[in-house]
Amino acid sequence: MTPPNGSSGVITPPGTPSRNGHHTVQEVESITIRFAGDSGDGMQLAGTQFTNTSALLGNDIATFPDFPAEIRAPAGTLPGVSGFQVHFSSTDIHTPGDVLNALVVMNPAALKTNLKDLEPGGYLIVNGDAFGVSDLDKARYKVSPLDDGSLKNYRVVRVSIGKLTREAVAECKLSPREADRCKNFFALGLVYWMYERPLETTLKWIRDKFGKNPQFVDANSRALKAGYNYGETVELLPVQYKVAKAKIAPGTYRKITGNEALALGLVAASMKAKKTLVFSGYPITPASSVLEQLADMKRFGVKTLQAEDEIAAAGVAIGASFGGAIGVTATSGPGICLKSEAIGLAVMTELPLVILDIQRGGPSTGLPTKTEQADLLQAMFGRNGECPAAIIAPQSPSDCFDIALEAVRIATRFMCPVFLLSDGYIANGAEPWKVPAVANLPNLEVKNITEPNGAGWGGAAHENGAGDAAKYLPYKRDELLARPWALPGTPGLEHRIGGIEKQDVTGNINYDPENHEHMVRTRAQKIENIALTIPDLDVIGPADADLLVIGWGGTHGTITTAIERARRKGQKVAQAHFRYLNPMPKNTAEVLARFKKILVPELNSGQLLWLLRAKFLAPAQGLNKIQGRPFLVSEIESAIDGMLK
Amino acid sequence: MSASATALPTLSTKDLSSDQEVRWCPGCGDYSILAQMKKALTTVGVPREKMAFVSGIGCSSRFPYYMNTYGFHTIHGRAPTFATGLRLANPDLQVWVVTGDGDGLSIGGNHTIHLLRRNVDVKVLLFNNEIYGLTKGQYSPTSRPGTKTKTSPVGSVESPIRPLTIALAAEATFVARTIDVDVQHLVAILQRAAAHKGTAFVEIYQNCKIFNDGVFEYATDKSVKAEHVLYLEHGKPMIFGKDRNKGIRLNGLKPEVVEIGKDCGPDDLLIHDETLSEPTLANLLSRMVNPEFPEVVGVLRAVRKPTYEELMDKQAADAVAKKGPGKIEDLFKAEDTWTVE
Ligand SMILES: Cc1ncc(C[n+]2csc(CCOP(=O)(O)OP(=O)(O)O)c2C)c(N)n1
Ligand code: SF4
Fold first, then answer.
1. Does CATH number 3.40.50.970 belong to domain B13-228+273-310?
2. Which of B49, B48, B52 lies closest to B63 in space, CA to CA?
3. Where would I find the Pyruvate flavodoxin/ferredoxin oxidoreductase pyrimidine binding domain in this sequence (chain A) (predicted)?
4. How far is A211 from chain B (nearest CA, A)?
5. Strand order in A573-578's β-sheet?
6. B10 falls in which pLDDT band (50, 70, 90)?
7. Tens digits of residue pLDDT in B20-39
């Protein structure tokens, strides 16, 4: 019996006999599995349940949900296929996996669109009931792939999932349609059996979810158990696979997606800052879920507003910041376009603002449900005039929590807009997150000025004639060039701000040419000063590496895995990952100068590469993929091989 | 409670004047509005640090710079959004939006509508001069048909927006109109707006001396204005004219101008009621346009409905009452957790 090959190494090759002695259980390091079916088949749900169970079992996990752009494309067609990939492991993993060890397909369309990712020899679990003439036709198959020998390289397990599910729920008084909707739990049960997972987590979920409809609780539970028992009784596979607990740092964990982590991070930040969180957004994929979650957190002092458009969303957030709250807005690329003018105002008025850009494929409406990293230059330059803003990017779903706090820190410390560039891949992907101790969260408390700063802020008279010590000077700056944040409602600090150029210190309208240049440079320097408060760029790997691989954002896990593999092959490769994109860490130039070869993989045509070349004349090369999909580890691996040839 | 805690702050108009030089064209109607605004605010009982003026872009939108209160001069058309955010952050502030007809009804029409339908407690002053002032004289969405400007050299072919009708359609809870040079009326309306809870929408006829001088002459020229303006008073019949002998009567669903004593008796006239829950009467008044009708000034509608902030606060309070105030730890553990030893 050959174990699944590919990424999952077999740990204990000799199988241990199973309970009834006919088949064996093998322990493997990790497994990647994908559930694929029609958008109506509940594949996201099955995948999520499988993930939760695996996470609670103590595996490390990484997921990759892949949604069609259409909400419900006609059933059974190629555009309607929805997939959910789970990588679960007994070791520390960073990606949802390149190659599938097992693929569950509920219909021919799912088979057609997903088969290419299944490893040779991998398990293909097929819902055999869905391969009738019309099903095949909808997926544009002339002959059934189950019959024409085209699947001979895989271990095809054909199960009448539809029929067996209907039999399993026969007593539950469901309509045929309702009965059919339990198919995903049958399939899930089957997979639970294959990988020796317990059913409890999902049974409990079913009870919580369908509590009001006992017949649904009963039916879905039966379907799940039937799938499991079917696997066991018919001895479906010669081997069951076992993935041990991962050795992870002690602590309390939960599963978290990127957008969940952003929402939690923002609320935690507002609590640590002792400020109201005012969040305003306009629905857009893949950002909407941040607004959806925060809208349900009213008892945490969060105020959310679903604005009439993205311009309004930005306006509400900035107005809230003017009023002393933490103003946050979230959107995706097309929404950033609309917010640009308002962001320029926040730059000009030097107010804190956090802008979450959950990037997706562009331009224009682009690929709404697919990931891309192509808004970096928009965040960097996409406004009129000289208009610098801070830019940071999370590297994984759980990192979204920390980076949300960091965004709030920078915005309030420096009085400036901060772009947080997440993406669809991070937003929807899930991984275990170690719940932090509240005491260890950064203290983000902000001091709002309550007395005029004329005197306390470096003396009375100065060149702009604003010598009145009793007067609040909105643009009198501190050592890092941040201006003081005075809140409406504070007696004695009445002042006016706005988007017209202001005289430094006094904040009076001013069209003086020298003042404008001074202010443009000051605003830029203020953003540069953020670098004084962030960590240096960390280079992981040998100091004399032949190649430095630089990444940013959601490609972190894939790049890390590729480099780990390269090192195992004996290649001398180092890694640097930019969490801070504007400003970049202070030592960036020095790091870039240390390496002769630099590779920059990005899910765009080379935007960070462009910045690195322009700013540092770095002799870097790009590896660029613009397909709406994340990198595969193998793609980065072979680029590394290519560079080291 | 001590006497000083209950005493209303007294402000002088000087207290409300900022040190910034006012830079509107001489003769601009904005001067009068600024002066009456300060006068009105001396009596509303709100300390000046609790007042905030938020504006978009346009001549009128320079207004916040001239008030010694908190002020935010934002971007074209979007003032309602910033004002909403400001109220959410600090519900203690009295927030005024100052906007022009281009700012508030063209580029910002959408935001104006949504501010009104949400009933955020913000007072919107629409300075209507039926022209774009700051960009030097292009027609605006309120310009009358045929208006000749730089961008409509042979006359505008567009139907003008009726600001009050739009406001009513957006479910505004307070809708009024007044005129820059009618100082007493202006002060009174501003005070009423200040006292309203919810979004107040006030259209102010404002003369642009430079690009649209005299568009409202029919309503401001002493010799003719009585014939062209109807001052609304709650509970009173709708009478106008120099001799107070004209009125508005309803003929079926249509208003008509009648002469008292000739066409009808005083009891046949429409009686104004600003408190009607259905804004049908207000809507009808908002659509009366010179020269066919006198144009109404005064309060068309003033009803009390829960504000956006009140409803939001209630939801938050309910959420706390149900599960207690949220702690960070609760948030972290909202999903299943597991412990690794
Ligand atoms: C995004 C944007 N578009 C256009 C302009 C130019 N602009 C400034 S004010 C204005 C119109 C002002 O007209 P109105 O609101 O009627 O105000 P007024 O100047 O008459 O008081 C325009 C088009 C701008 N500042 N920003
Ligand atoms: S252009 Fe018109 S509206 Fe603007 S300041 Fe001059 S007179 Fe007033």
1. yes
2. B52
3. 273-442
4. 18
5. A539-540, A573-578, A547-552, A598-602, A620-624
6. confident
7. 999 999 999 999 999 999 99
